[in-house]
Amino acid sequence: MKKSTSPMHIKFRIPIILLGAILVLSLVACDLSVDNDAGMEIPTERLVAVNTMPVQTGDIRTELSFTGIVRASTQIPVMARLSGMVSEVMFNVGDFVYAGDVLFTLDEADLQTNIRALSAQLDTANAAVNAAQTGVSLAGGSAVQGQILQAETAMIHAQAGVEQAQLGVEQAQLGVEQRQLAVSQAELAYQDASTNLQNMALLLEYGDIPQTQFDQAESGVSNTRIMLEQARSALEMAEISLEQARGGVAQAQSGVTQATASYNLVSQHVRSENLRRAQDGLAQAQAQRDALAVNLEAAEERLNDASITAPISGVISSRGVEPHAMMLPNLAPFTIVSIDTVLIHVNVTESIVNRIENGQEISVNISAASNIPFTGHVLTVSPTADPMTQTFNVEIELDNSDGLLRPGMFAEAFFTRDESSDTIVVPRSAVLLYEGQPIVFLANGEHAVQRAVTTGIDSGSEIEILEGLALGDNLIVRGQTFVRDGSPIHIVEEGVN
Question: Is the pTM of this model over 0.70?
Fold first, then answer.
């Protein structure tokens, strides 16, 4: 990896003139010598107490941090395939659900009515098929009397199917009338609430009523409008059931016609031409029966759709459905999130993006969950920058099997910018700046020796030395700001930082 030379932030601020005054504070008492010729006392340079450590190799790196928000790894909106009245809601926000759990159910009354009508129509169609088969058998020369009896029985069954289908029409008509009455009542209630709101507005304008009473009138209009819409939707469903029931009557009557025709064929001892017609009638009856069977199967599937289940295991993050409310297919009444693993999206700058790879381990601080950093892995790195921010999106995945992390928590991800291994690393405070050049002081016997150095990676607490030091050099790490090149020193402690 390419190493960068970081600027030094510590300056050698002690002027030479002031150095002597500072040295007075050293721990060694002043020694005086006498000039015998001049007869004057001349002070000698004072010893400076220092700590040293041997120069060693180590690892160093710098990091850049970027912030993001914890998100769920999977978020699924639950959709209802059908519209209708909500019957029951089983779960609430924060509940854990398993895949397949029933979240809520819709009213099944209209669906059951439709299934019963289709079942009756299918019975009639089966009878028609049996009658058509009998007609084919008779036309082919089978025993006439037995076939006549079968055809007559089929005709009776077909007529019973008509009566049953007509009963279904009557029941559906009754359902329509009941829902029409409900619509009329809802319309009256809405009109009354609207009139009351107008009156309340006038009274409010003249100060005869408080604002809360007017707000209640507005709420009444909103509630009656919802009730009216629900009543109209229920009426539409009932009218659809009525049309289906009427269609069942027509099909049942068609079955009677076919059964009657089969009976006539049998009783008249059809010949070859009648055999062809009988076969055509059988094919038609079978086609109608098969179509009804498909419709019945679809109706039964819609009944299953009335129980809305969880598509995945997870936690419910939102709920927008209540019992007795109308549910429309384009709404998402529940949202389920899976947080066994969570994602963090951070936007990094171009200076670091090329150092990030998929699968790379990333240290992530999430103080709301723990004081100990989490370890995540890079999931994706955007190949292009956002045109607005000129940053690259990085997606980090974290294991959350213990459930400590919750979507919405603030996260800080750390990425390595520069790093170097098995290189000379010294304390940052040991390097000083003198006349624009980074320097250090070494202990050479009883004197300090100034050494110019070339620096590399600067982590803030430590700094890499590229040139100027060798392994084993005795580096002054405390007291270095009080010495200059050649200053006498007293080593108080060795091998310390």
Answer: no
